[in-house]
Amino acid sequence: MNREEFKSTLKEILDNNNIGTMATIRDNKPMSRYMYFYNDGLTLYTYTRKDTYKIDDLEENPYAHILLGYEERVDKGESYVEILGKASLPEEVTPDVDEMLAKLGNLYQKLKGEDDLQAIKIDIETVRIMNDEDAEPETVEL
């Protein structure tokens, strides 16, 4: 699979999967939790409350490991992605991020109303597409 085909397949998986896991490091141990994600091209966004362990974890070590995909669906297959990304914590939720995250549902509206929202932006550094019938898994740097 060439680079453009890889990016296209990756974007399709990101576009069609909003729930995945995000692992951070706490006390030199991995901590994983389910998160809602939204992508803008090949950049991921999620949100949480400001006073959570995951925010503390990312402030200490900004790298996160994310799994998205792997639902048994006839029309979408079982492909999923393993992502290593570097997270940042924007001080303000800009209108474009606000619009993207608003699509994720009522919890976002509740958090936003409580003025306790922290957006998390994840810039993908490396990614592997797994269970792709057309290609063997390979790690690709973006």
UniProtKB/TrEMBL annotation:
<dbReference type="InterPro" id="IPR012349">
    <property type="entry name" value="Split_barrel_FMN-bd"/>
</dbReference>
<protein>
    <submittedName>
        <fullName>Pyridoxamine 5'-phosphate oxidase family protein</fullName>
    </submittedName>
</protein>
<dbReference type="Pfam" id="PF01243">
    <property type="entry name" value="PNPOx_N"/>
</dbReference>
<feature type="domain" description="Pyridoxamine 5'-phosphate oxidase N-terminal">
    <location>
        <begin position="8"/>
        <end position="130"/>
    </location>
</feature>
<dbReference type="InterPro" id="IPR011576">
    <property type="entry name" value="Pyridox_Oxase_N"/>
</dbReference>
<dbReference type="InterPro" id="IPR052917">
    <property type="entry name" value="Stress-Dev_Protein"/>
</dbReference>
